[in-house]
Design brief:
six-stranded antiparallel beta barrel, mainly beta, 6 strands
Length: 74
């Protein structure tokens, strides 16, 4: 699990399930669509990655009303 926080402080934090993690980015599942190009604070709940930023590079709807997001660390 990870937490995504809007950098501008507007809006609430969003929980994300991390299904892929690399040095350059992450694959996430979230409950709402995220705009491609938006940037969030990214923090793994287990402490592996803290204080990072991630840019949304793709967002796809799934059949179960969740969204798969591809993000690149920036």
């Amino acid at each position: 699990m990870a937490i995504l926080r809007p950098l501008d402080g507007a809006g609430e934090a969003l929980e994300a399930h991390v299904f892929e993690l690399s040095m350059h980015g992450a694959g996430l599942s979230v409950r709402r669509a995220l705009e491609v190009g938006s940037v969030f604070g990214f923090e793994m709940c287990d402490g592996r990655q803290a204080g990072g930023r991630i840019e949304v590079r793709s967002c796809r709807a799934r059949a179960d009303n969740m969204f798969d997001v591809g993000g690149q660390f920036c």
